[in-house]
Design brief:
single chain, 362 residues, alpha/beta, Rossmann fold, Metal Binding Protein, Guanine Nucleotide Exchange Factor, Chain A, 2 domains, 6-stranded antiparallel β-sheet, 5-stranded parallel β-sheet, 33% helix, binds zinc ion
Length: 362
């Protein structure tokens, strides 16, 4: 039972390592230094390897330095002149966190390592990968068909390739599934779940003390996963757990409403009963949509405006969902869903989800 894996120091690969140990594998790990801004993840990986060793689990761990080769590439994760975007993981802007061809490069090295171990130890070796369904939308090199093709190419190009195979236990799961699985593995191995996950990093832009803001897409996904299993994330954030959780839930709701045409629950929005003087902007792209002069109390539970701001050019779309004929309104600049427009006896009413707006005081 021999396994090789890439240990990034993030929660997915860490969960995978614990799983492999619980399954009885002897594991060798590679971590990559590739000029990532968040290379605190390598220290965290080393801390976990040390913790495992103290508890009787010896895991071989190598750090491969690829920073010279990968300095040729352009990505928000490695280039100083590109900022890490914030928001929900699935958003278009998160594409800037793709490192070109990263997983093909990482997988090639792991494959060579696995093949070497297979020859040296005269054994079959699995290559375990922590990729999961939550990654697929943004990272095409996390898709199962990519690994199938890669595996096929490696098979053609290597002697004794039949001794090495890919193993992707989380391919149909998500971060929540990984955490639930890790709880079981930790219990089985008598390891402390919180210690292990405190020794991980998910943030792409931690501060100088290694603390995360909790705002990048990957952070939001992680925070929601811990929330879903009813636990507090043991990793340290810049603000309190309550605050980062609130932010993550807000990002999730914003994504649901603006990108999936959802509706927030009535009487829950920050701006429902909000009548300060100022302007309301699209929460996604910041376009000016409404001014406070046009806001009124409709009593319906969502912010209401009787007109849009000059030059807002809000898009109107016929919406026949839920057995009604309504006019849906969308931001013309970023095409996010905002709410609906009703023509009533008193005049027009823009019924807008509060979560789609950012208020700026005059
Ligand atoms: Zn917009």
């Amino acid at each position: 039972m021999r396994a090789v894996m890439a240990l990034s120091g993030g929660m997915d690969s860490t969960g995978l390592l614990i799983r492999l140990l619980a399954e009885g594998y002897k594991v060798s790990c590679i971590s990559y230094e590739y000029g990532q801004k968040h290379n605190i993840e390598l220290q965290r990986a080393q801390q976990n390897i040390a913790y495992l060793s103290e508890n009787g689990f010896d895991v071989e761990h190598k750090i491969a330095d690829l920073s010279s080769a990968m300095s040729l590439f352009h990505s928000a994760l490695t280039s100083d002149d590109v900022d890490i975007p914030e928001g929900h993981y699935e958003q278009e802007q998160m594409k800037s966190t793709v490192v070109p061809n990263r997983n093909a490069i990482f997988a090639s090295i792991v494959y060579g390592y696995a093949l070497s171990i297979s020859l040296k130890e005269d054994t079959d070796v699995i290559i375990a990968l922590g990729v999961h369904s939550g990654d697929h939308a943004i990272y095409p090199d996390c898709r199962p068909e990519f690994y199938q093709s890669l595996g096929h190419a490696f098979e053609i190009g290597n002697w004794d390739s039949e001794r090495v195979s890919f193993h992707l236990p989380y391919i149909d799961g998500d971060k929540e599934a990984i955490l639930r699985d890790s709880l079981i593995s930790c219990k089985k191995l008598d390891l402390d779940f919180d210690t292990i996950f405190a020794n991980t990093n998910t943030s792409y832009n931690p501060d100088s003390k290694g603390r995360s803001s909790g705002k990048s897409g990957a952070d939001v996904e992680r925070i929601l996963a811990f929330h879903a299993i009813g636990r507090k994330d043991p990793v340290e954030y810049i603000t309190s757990w309550e605050e980062v959780l609130e932010g993550a839930l807000k990002a999730q709701l914003r994504h649901y409403v603006m990108k999936e045409n959802g509706t927030e629950r009535p009487f829950t929005g920050e701006y429902d009963k909000h009548y300060e003087n100022g302007t309301y902007h699209c929460a996604d792209c910041d376009k000016l949509l409404f001014v406070s002069d046009s806001k009124f109390d409709s009593g319906c539970g969502w912010p209401a405006f009787d007109s849009e701001a000059e030059n807002a050019e809000i898009t109107q779309v016929k919406d026949v969902s839920h057995g009604m004929v309504r006019i849906e309104v969308r931001c013309t600049q970023c095409d996010s869903h905002l709410g609906h427009l009703f023509h009533e006896s008193r005049g027009p009413r823009y019924c807008i989800n509060s979560i789609c707006l950012n208020f700026k005081e005059e």
